Amino acid sequence: MSQIRSREVHLVNRPAGTPARGDFAVVETALDPPARGEVQVRNLWLSVDPYMRGLMGTTRTYIDPYHLGEVMTGGAVGTVEVSRHPKLAEGDLVLSNHGWRDRFVASGDGVHPIDPTLAPPQAFLGVMGMPGFTAWLGIHEIARLEARETVFVTGAAGAVGSVACQLARRLGARVVASAGSDDKVRWLADQAGVEAFNYKQTKHLYRQLVKLCRDGFDVTFDNVGGDHLEAALLAMRNHGRVVLCGMIGQYNAERPPAGPSSLVVAITKRLTLRGFIAFDHAGLEPRFQAEMAGLIASRQIRWTETVYEGLENAPAAFIGLFSGANTGKMLVRL
Amino acid sequence: MSQIRSREVHLVNRPAGTPARGDFAVVETALDPPARGEVQVRNLWLSVDPYMRGLMGTTRTYIDPYHLGEVMTGGAVGTVEVSRHPKLAEGDLVLSNHGWRDRFVASGDGVHPIDPTLAPPQAFLGVMGMPGFTAWLGIHEIARLEARETVFVTGAAGAVGSVACQLARRLGARVVASAGSDDKVRWLADQAGVEAFNYKQTKHLYRQLVKLCRDGFDVTFDNVGGDHLEAALLAMRNHGRVVLCGMIGQYNAERPPAGPSSLVVAITKRLTLRGFIAFDHAGLEPRFQAEMAGLIASRQIRWTETVYEGLENAPAAFIGLFSGANTGKMLVRL
Predict the structure, then answer these.
(1) Looking at residue A166, what is its pLDDT?
(2) With an 8 Å Cβ cutoff, is A275 touching chain B?
(3) Torsions phi, psi of B22, nearest 5?
(4) pTM for this structure?
(5) Chain A residues within an 8 Å CB radius of B260
(6) pLDDT at B315 exceeding the cut of 60
(7) CATH 3.40.50.720-classified regions of chain B
(8) Residue A246: closest CA among chain B residues belongs to which residue?
(9) Is the pLDDT of residue A200 over 70?
(10) Residues 255-274 of A with CB under 8 A from B
(11) A113-144: per-residue pLDDT in tens?
(12) I need a labelling partner for B249 at 20 to 30 A (CA). Which of A267, A321, B24, B260 fits?
């Protein structure tokens, strides 16, 4: 019996600063056929996400860092080609975390069927998946945003931010959103229905925030960190809540950049800043999925995707996250 | 009828950087005798507190800044000399917020009798007063510290820190405390019963914290900010809570200093940072006072004071807060 060929992307060098193509290598592998309990999956869509940058160093954070010379793990959607697992059948669409590879053979227990009647398959890597869940948690569980409150969303045109904006609007909150291009701002205004501005065209971020929202924000949903967080703190109302979701502006810094010089206002304004990670809240995922499926079915939520083609372009797609190359979810189509 | 003379300390210049004696002036005034509902009080003890520095600029924070050419308001304990208020009698010991002056005449409604059988009068400016209440709130309400948790207290020999350390110990928590002199460290070890170190003798604060507490802190109670907060964040356990009580290390900075470069770990470790101000929680003050009076009566809490003599030395006492001249509560005795 001939072995099945696959290709996968390995991390071969721990990047210093912004990752480069040379930090990755496409490697040909041979797969053994599935043993009992295993499945063989052909991936259709790969996810590239900012959190992956945090796993490229040597420090253990909430999960182990990537190993050099091994595959870049992460979310992927594929179809089952061969199943020796009782709950999975050939042709099933499945979500897995086996990462940047054309095909894999693995235990069926770590492979989760998705229902393509709820959303397009790749949406399970975006609005219906981890980024959507992160946005939902940040708005509902961490910020506990309420109607008539005002929220500032940074990195608002990204996979998380774009969903956070819309969930906040649906609650009846006022949303001010920052993004890094006029196209993104247009998408946010037209599709997400929020007040967006291009921070790259803004000389003084704090003054811009005050201009847009003189009374200050009840909540900031921060995906960017750095000067965004610094300005946001200054623009918060007393007793406001700051959701620390991401700091994409500094993940590539070779030395830890200075924190927000405005942090002292967390005392005078009695702010709460709270960091979170979606996987702590797995128990809420079914509720999220049911709610999001309902919003998608009733066309009450919009999303967009930026798609790179081919496994060999997964590194480029990933690197593009840090220059804002994506509007909405960044994906790789195989 | 001859007018009563008093002296008071005015802020006459908004300090840039560390306040100087010349930013204050002692001014002689004449007091009108109390009208109906008013009292005349001779102050015995004045409080100088770090929060006062935040009121010396032009920015409104949680209360209005000081006015130039007016008295430095703040806590004081005195005796009633003349009362035209039905609830106050000559000889009563009272707590007020009329600040740095020998005597004042004011409405009796803003003057609060204290019970000298509970604690020495000046303790109502320290362990039984605002600093003690701040410590109690930070430990119980903000951190919600629990037995067997580990807490790092910065500025631990100050009026707030020294009480926070002991309240934490009483809960059954492990306390690691930083202070700025060997004498303070000795006081903390001998009197507060905590593990203290002199951060000025510590080359690398984070490594020191790891050495003392390899598993990390559940809670940091931060009175200092700056590199203390930066190291503390790195030394926190997952899901830890950081009480932002003060940032005395930066109140005199002429430009806002950089924030903690380690703030990104608030995401990976899912930390909550929460700023608070005691006066938001006035409803809890009776409970605090009853508990603290009980601890004092049963000699379960220790405190110490650093005392400057004479109204004219109130500025020096205040300025001394920023060089760590005090162990325990900094007071001015009139």
Answers:
(1) 98
(2) yes
(3) -65, -10
(4) 0.96
(5) 259, 263
(6) yes
(7) 130-279
(8) B267
(9) yes
(10) 255-274
(11) 999 999 999 999 999 999 999 999 999 999 99
(12) B24
**Which pLDDT belongs to residue B1?**
53
- Residue B312 is classified by DSSP as G
Residue B55's region, left for phi above 0, alpha for psi from -120 to 50, else beta, is alpha
Please tell me the distance from the alpha carbon of residue B159 to that of residue B248, in angstroms, as a whole number. Answer: 12
Judge: domain A4-126+304-333, CATH 3.90.180.10: yes
**Is the model's pLDDT at A105 over the cut of 80?**
yes
Pull the structure tokens for residue B66.
């000081």
Q: Tell me the average pLDDT across B306-323.
A: 98
Question: For residue range A136-170, what is the model confidence (pLDDT) as tens digits?
Answer: 999 999 999 999 999 999 999 999 999 999 999 99
Helix axes A205-212, A226-234, angle to 10 degrees: 40
Whether B262 sits inside 8 A of A261 (CB atoms) is no
Of chain A, the percentage scoring pLDDT greater than 90 comes to: 96
- Both tokens assigned to A106: 């693995």
Over residues B20-39, mean pLDDT: 97
A3 has a pLDDT exceeding 90: no
**For helices B205-212 and B226-234, angle between their N-to-C axes, nearest 10 degrees:** 40
Does domain A130-279 bear CATH number 3.40.50.720?
A: yes
pLDDT tens-digit series, residues A239-271: 999 999 999 999 999 888 999 999 999 999 999
* Parts of chain A belonging to CATH 3.90.180.10: 4-126+304-333
Helices (H) and strands (E) in chain B, counts: 8, 16
Contacts of A94 (CB under 8 A, 6+ apart): A39, A41, A77, A78, A79, A80, A88, A111, A112, A113, A114
Task: Classify B275 as helix, strand or coil.
Answer: strand
- Give the integer Cα–Cα distance in Å for A158 and A305: 9
CA-based nearest distance B120→chain A, Å: 30
The predicted model gives A197-224 an average pLDDT of: 97
Amino acid (one-letter) located at B294: G
Per DSSP, the three-state class of B209 is helix
| Res. B108: pLDDT tops 80 | yes
Nearest chain B Cα distance for residue A15, angstroms: 18
**Distance between CA atoms of A136 and A291, rounded to whole angstroms?**
10
- Phi and psi angles of residue A188, each rounded to the nearest 5 degrees, phi first: -65, -40
Share of chain A above pLDDT 70, in %: 99
Put simply, the chain B residues between 43 and 102 with a CB less than 8 A from any chain A CB are 54, 61-62
This complex has an ipTM of 0.96
SS (H, E, C) chain A: CCCEEEEEEEECCCCCCCCCHHHEEEEEEEECCCCCCEEEEEEEEEECCHHHHHHCCCCCCCCCCCCCCEECCECEEEEEEEECCCCCCCCCEEEECECCECEEEEEHHHCEECCCCCCCHHHHHCCCCHHHHHHHHHHHHHCCCCCCCEEEECCCCEHHHHHHHHHHHHHCCEEEEEECCHHHHHHHHHCCCCEEEEHHHCCCHHHHHHHHCCCCEEEEEECCCHHHHHHHHHCEEEEEEEEECCCHHHCCCCCCCCECCCCCHHHHCCCEEEECCHHHHHHHHHHHHHHHHHHHHCCCCCCCEEEEECHHHHHHHHHHHHHCCCCEEEEEEC
Give the mean model confidence (pLDDT) for residues A22-38: 97
Q: Does domain B4-125+304-333 have CATH number 3.90.180.10?
A: yes
Mean pLDDT of chain B: 96
Stretch(es) of chain B classified as CATH 3.90.180.10: 4-125+304-333
